[in-house]
Amino acid sequence: MLAVDTNVVVRLLADDDPQQSPSARRLFQQHTIYLVKTVLLETEWVLRKTYACSRHEIHQRLLTLVSLPQVEVEQAHAVVHALAWFAQGMDFADALHLATSDDCDAFATFDRKLAAAAKKAKAGKVKAL
Q1: Which of 10, 29, 60, 87 is deepest in the core (most CB within 10 A)?
Q2: What's the distance, CA 13 to chain centroid?
Q3: What domain range includes position 16?
Q4: Domain count within the chain
Q5: Is the whole model's pTM more than 0.85, yes or no?
């Protein structure tokens, strides 16, 4: 199994570099790939900020990525929940934080926007402070 950095995932998803993108594809074709949550978090940020991808594009690309048969994802159940909540309008980082803390009594925040988005998405127990 091979863990990959954000830059490898971005090269795969953006397909924008004539040397690195094919290399990233080969890695994904030849290895079982392990994706850590922080790489997915950073990938969402890069796609949004650097490539100006829409929420829909980001959601589709990340969902396709984590669904590949040769890809294993850290806390896959949490990532799937986070992606679903992201598709419903929640910030991806907030969704991932909330999904990862699912075993806790609640998720406390001063962020009223997060609390409202979580309530709308029925995304767990958020305690607005």
Answers
A1: 10
A2: 13
A3: 1-74
A4: 2
A5: yes
